[in-house]
Amino acid sequence: MALLIASDLHKDMAGRPLLRGVSFKLERRERMTIAGRNGAGKTTLLRMLAGETSIDRGELSIAKGVRIALHDQRPPRERQILLGEYLLSGCVEELQIETELGALEEKMAGGSADEALLARYARAQAQLEARGGYLWRDRAKVMARGLGFVEDDLDRTLGTFSGGQLTRASLARALATGADVLLLDEPTNHLDIESLEWLEQTLVELDAAVVLVAHDRWFLEAVGTAVLELYGAPPTRSRFFAGTWHQWRREQAAREIALGKAIDAQRAEIARMERFIERFRYKATKASQAQSRVRKLAKMERIERDPGAGRGLEFAFSAPERSGRVIFELLDGRIEIGGEGPQASPVRGGGHPITLLDHAELWLERGEHVSLVGPNGSGKTTLIETLAGRRELAAGKLSIGHNVRIGYLSQHAEELGAGGDTGQSVLDAAQRATGLTPGKARALLGRFLFSGEEAEKPLEGLSGGERRRLSLAILVGSATDPPNVLILDEPTNHLDIESREALEDALRAFGGAILLVSHDRALLDAVGTRTVAVEEGSLRSYTGGWPEYVRVREER
Q1: Are 163 and 376 a contacting pair, CB within 8 Å?
Q2: pLDDT tens, 383-393?
Q3: Which is the most buried residue in 204, 387, 539, 553, by most CB within 10 A?
Q4: Residue 4 pairs with which residues in a beta bridge?
Q5: pLDDT tens digits along 280-328
Q6: Nearest to 463 by CA among 416, 421, 523
Q7: Which residues contact 272 (CB under 8 A, 6 or more apart)?
Q8: Which helix (H) or strand (E) holds 298?
Q9: HSE-up of 405 (CA within 13 Å, CB side)?
Q10: 49, 6 Cβ separation under 8 angstroms
Q11: Can you list the alpha helix ranges (DSSP code H) found in 418-509?
């Protein structure tokens, strides 16, 4: 029996049509991924299924007793409660049952033990047993631990956590509910690879239905059993596909090829009809046939592509100038954060510095594409900031090779507004950072989907995806001294799948050296030729790309 059935759902946003005719059904243990471009309505659809956003037309049927839990990118509003309390707050029914059992136990302890009271107590106990018994609280701890929290974190208030940690807390809370239907919006954000692999295994083993939106291709392939495609320019429509993410992509590609052939065939037919009409419309013996073709042309439904389908990133890095064989070499390095000086961390505060890496050794040679991996908080970002000259080395020796020019992409694009006027536009920022003329800067921005008026958008109003695309444009478009070394910190953050694949192609084709920090395993697999892992406060190099690293790690 289906847990949830959506029939012909419609939704308008701000007076404009967004979704039309969305239909599907969801069975227990089915894991449906929602595919579609940014702005297609994926998050809105999840909130409609959760009852947080109204449905303008259509019907949503939910089986009796089915519980639904939503995780999205909005951080918790209440920041004064403890993490442990927040994780349990989604288990409303369990908390109510425990309260009822406590009240009944007090009455029985006071001498009341009639049959009605005992029956109520038995029913409440049965309800609690159906939801995991008294171990339901442990479920929250298991989910929190799997997503990188430790026992002491449960007694900290939400206000003491970073934005990424709060997002993980929201995901843990949704998983802890034991809901029959889980709605997950970008659940892979802010997860390191270990947590990603744990989440994949957890979702596959859950006795629940899952609807999810994500841009991590390996995650989608590992978890998904069906795809709901939202296609077309808004208003978007839906197309259901029963099969894995990879199977859907293959079917989508075949459909695009067939559509292209159909469009070509129709255009050829239209051209033939128009030539016939032009030649014979004024010839008495052929006039009726010409008029028949005119009417047929007027009634013909033209086959068109999705207006947004052809619009994607298209770029390549400039051919790099040759550098020395060794790009940089780190010997006996110590990386610290905190303390009172320029290394002080606004998150961890002052006081004694914290050592993230010690006795670390790392080298990068000309043309090498190296992946840097490790758990969140292990020092990856601090290390590459040091290599890029943005931090000082606490101890050890860092040697930079001959003619090395570094292009650096930070995780949160902090450098975008540096040195510019308040209120600067996308075009202003691009010109300032690249030194290009207005015309060349506009041409560059157009390749990164900032066309026309979009290039005039104020910098402070950009979304995460737009900021990432602008950062990439600046990295690619430097008018002088293009980099021959790229140091990239989570370059796929906020990018949709098509943009990730465009970046992947550009990096694979880059002839210079790359040091890449990412949790996108598809990117690591495609780009990296050697893997350096942060392990127990130091660095260890593994010959070969991501698959070889995974093989060695699993054997060990």
Answers
A1: no
A2: 999 999 999 99
A3: 387
A4: 26, 62
A5: 766 666 677 777 877 887 887 777 766 555 567 888 998 889 999 999 9
A6: 416
A7: none
A8: helix 287-299
A9: 14
A10: yes
A11: 426-434, 438-447, 464-476, 497-509
